[in-house]
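Researcher: I'm preparing a figure for a lab meeting and need a structural model of a single chain. I don't have an experimental structure, so a prediction will have to do for now. The sequence is pasted below. Please return the structure as tokens so I can convert it later.
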Amino acid sequence: MSDENEPNANERNTVSYAQKYWWLILVLLPLALALIKIIPDLRTKKSEGGGFNNQQTGNDNVAISGNQNILNSDLSTKTYVINMASIEKEYAAIKREPLKDDELKKQIEAALELLNSGKARESAAAFEAINRKIALPSLQTDLGVAYQKAGDGNASAQAFTKALEQDPKYAPAHHNLGLVKASRGELVEAREHFEKASGIGDSKALAQIAQEALKDHDYEVEPNNEPAQANILPLLKMVAGNIADGSDTDFFRITTPPKYRDVVRVRIENQSTTLQPGINVSDSDKSRLGGDYHGTPGANFDYSFSVQPDTVYFVQVYGHGTSAGRYSFRVTPLKKYDPYEPNNNIRQAAPIEIGKQIDANIMDGEDGDFYRFKTVTKGATVKIHIENQSITLQPGINVFDSNKSRLGGDYHGTPGANFDYSFS
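Model: Understood. Here is the structure written out token by token.
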């Protein structure tokens, strides 16, 4: 039960004045980010400048030198490059004679040197010329790696595919094509290629790399048509799924981060031209909290919602109407917008310093942020400035004294507007 004397975000009762400690609440409806600055007596003291800390979520982009490369993707692992000795061995096995063309060998060695020295486009051009002279799966595979390093995913996939046309059991091409598929979120196809690479590879190193790639990617496990059958999904982990027909649906269970109230984003990357992706979200009691769908077949779809810390939620993926198709799916906690949480009532008011900026957020229509600060001079005029960092926030302020009695407040009804409020 709440304390009847404790004001909340909606109370606007006028009570007596007290000095020294001031309590501030920001009460706003839409999800938004605000920059707040509290300024002491403007007539006597210059305000201090605080820096706005715009934290960004980092990307795991890594490069490894030599014959291994990490794809620029959350789903990355090592690409397999075919060296000169393996190319000569393959040539001898297919042609039933050793590679005697010294000029061709020099061209292949030069193309590999370009590839390993980071000159990917020059290497791709060199391998293109070589592949016009001789057809070997290894040379097509190295061409694909060169294009991959040059950032041309389509040309890379085409080269690996052509290598598999030349030899359907060529394990390095299966492995590398699996990486391309994984980087696109096509995890079902990626898994098929990784499994083939692992099963038919005559190299223990390649088989081990392929097995590691399999571990790096998740796939839905059927049946999961009910919350009780929900697949447990770690945050940030991409999972591949399939809505088989109009009656199929996939349930996943997530647990939010333990410390902060946050917003999570559910993203569906459509792997079909038919699925109209839909999402429903429910709490641990299976009560629906919200959801939406995209009515365009083949469209990707994002859905965000506010969550409590260390809490279980169920996410249902379905096809709108009777649509069906493959998809990739990830749940991402967005950056911690408000390091002052929890501060949703006056007893949780976060201490702040006069003259310094803070980076904070109103998470949703039920959120309100309380802060407390101490004035330096009795009777000083205090100015509170909200610098709106959104196009939706309608900023509002209530001020309370040290007895938690409301002294006043106001709001700005224009979404996205900045707002100043002064009191003495």
